[in-house]
Each structure stands twice: as structure tokens, then as C-alpha cells.
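Structure ticket #2291
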Amino acid sequence: MSVIPTPSSGFATIDFETTGFHAEGTDRAIEISVVHSEPDGTITGQWETLINPGRDLGRQDIHGISAREILRAPQFSHIAADLVDLLSQRVVVAHNASFDMRFLQAELGRAAYWGGVPFVSLCTMRLARTHLGGSTTLADCCAAFDIDLNGGHRAAVDARATAELLGAFVASTGLSSWTELLGSAERLAPHAGERHPWLARTGVEEYSPSFLERIVDRVPDISDSDEQAEYVALVERCLLDRYLSEHEKNALVAHADRTGLGRATVERLHRDYLSALVRIAWSDGVVTEDERDDLLAVAHLLEVPAEVVLDALARPVEVAEAAPAEAFALTPGDIVVLTGDMARPRSEWEKRLREHGFTPKPAVTKAARLVIAADPDSLSGKARKARDYGIPIVGEAWLAERYA
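Resolution: structure written out below.
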């Protein structure tokens, strides 16, 4: 691997691919990527490697890692020293950090390592619940800021996207908001273990998400707490192949026990999650047989009576259409989001919008009043989220006519 920089203040965003969900049991890490960012969110470096877990690879259909690749990869104990150096004196960041931090701690424990001080961690999924609202999946959070996420379920891709998402949060909240957190990350004791070369994945095939995974990315946040959001995120990962193994069931039960989620709360989350899927299936005005079968399969796996789904599917959900741009007027304080490469620099438009009392924001949330796009037919993540939320999208010409 390339030379590791001297420990300094900043962020280290991580992402693991794993054999399953039970970090403290038989599951193991099989890939990790680390991305370094300055305190202002600027990305300065990235490292990645496959990891030989010494066991079967679990869900190969999702992570796409083959046994042939793993045979040449280092064991975790052989990359732990470098990994500790990469994380030292940095805030460790992950999307659903509860998952990645448990695997980090478990693998370091097996490598007989203790850093002398606890890790300071930050979860972008929890940040999204506060700053964005709506779905908290990595794909949907990235869409809110037009962050590229092609090739998900590869550690390097997800870690990079998460680091860019973190940078967007830092930029939108101001550097001073993070000073105390960054200052609390201490230098870790070095690990005396062997250091073997890191082995990055090669020849990665393009990942094609299933219908269920595509609509999961658009499910609104149905949770009432961070712990519930983490449980729903685990449900989503378990359901990607529409099959719940006993290991996955045990992982869900263990999470509920660990976070104090009672049976009634879990049942409510399952029903609310399924209701959200039904609404998305109806969003185009029709539910296909494939969609119906998928929804029934999810209901079965979540132990929600099929009648609940069939009853919901029998009554079309009314999806509110966005009002035409001419049907409303912006008022002072309204949130406006710009997307695309416009004829006039975005900074100039943001200045002009502020002069008229409007509030330009970098991300599309339900609070946005209007999205202004270089191309009103844009397929950007921001435009997709605006259409999901029923927020009008207009072109730069509309803006120029009124506020130039």
C-alpha cells in the first residue's frame, strides 16, 4: 500500500464488506476501505484491501467477492497495524457506524489489539436523520447532494461516497461545529503485528440492484430514534435477496436486544416499513405482478400478515403531484436548491436568491420549496428526490426572468 501519513487531526471514513451481520460471532470482515479527510471535509487519500476471513464468504451475490480473489488477500491480523495508523487521532466515520464499528472492534479484538484510548466515531446515517429527513440509506442521502454512488456494495465506493457526504454536512453546517469532536480523537497506541501488502479488488463487475433494493433506497425514515433507524437499516441489508437466513434472524434479534427494542416496537417498524414500500410501489399509479410478489415475500419474511399487503394493494395510494411552477410564488425564507451546471455561476445565483430573502441549500429535503435545474428534465439525484417529494423543478430561465 502507499505510504501512510503521520497521524493528524481529521476524519477517517471506513466501510466494511462482511460475510454477514454477527460481528461478535462467526462473521468476518472481507474488505475494508479507509478515506482520509481534512477537518473541512476535503478528501486527501484512500486505501482499500480484501481480507481473507479463513471461512466461506457469505453473500457473494451482494458483495461480488470471489474465493479466488480472497486466497491471495492478507488476513486481518496482517493489515491491523496499518489500519491502526490510518485511524489514529482521527474521528472514525461510517454510514450506520454501529455496524462498521462493531466489526472494527471485533476484528481488532481477535488481533489482540487495544489502542489505549477509545475510538471517537461519527455516523452519517444519524446525521442524515437530523439534517435531511426522508430515507437514510446511503444512496438516497448521496442523491440529496448529487454525490455519485455507482458500484455500491464495494468498500471503496461506499467509503468514498460516505466521505463526500460527510464533506457536504461539514460544508453546510460550518467547520466550527466539528472542532470539539475532532479535538477529542486521540492518538492510538501502535500495533506491533506483522504488516503485509494490501490487496485491492480488481475486475469488479457492475452491480445490478434488485427491484426491492431500488425501492429500499427511497423508503422514508419510519424510525423514532437512532436505534430504530439502525434496526431498519439492518432489515434492509438482510432482505436484499428476499431471504432471511437463521444467522440474519439472529443478528436482528441480537440488535433488538442490544438496543432495547421491544417486540411491539419491532412489529410496528415491520408494518410501517412495509407500508412505505407499498406507497412507493403505487407511486407510478400501477402495481405490477412482480412488485406484488416482492411485497408479499417481504411481508412473509417480516411476519406481517399477507392480508395487510393485499388490503393495501387493493386501494390505490393517491400520490400528490407537484404543483406547476406558475401556481405558486416564493416567499422570504423559502428553501431553494440549485442543481446542474448553469450558464451563470451557482455562487452568483445563490447571492441573488439571498438578496431576495430566499435560502439556498445544498441538499434536497422535504423542506425545500423549489429546485432549480440547469435542465428541468435532469436525472440527477437532487431532481429524483424532488420528484419523489412532489417539489416543483424549474429551469434557469425561470429564475432569470424573475430574479436576474
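Closing remark: The beta strands are 11-18, 29-37, 43-50, 91-94, 121-123, 335-339, 359-361, 368-373, 393-395.
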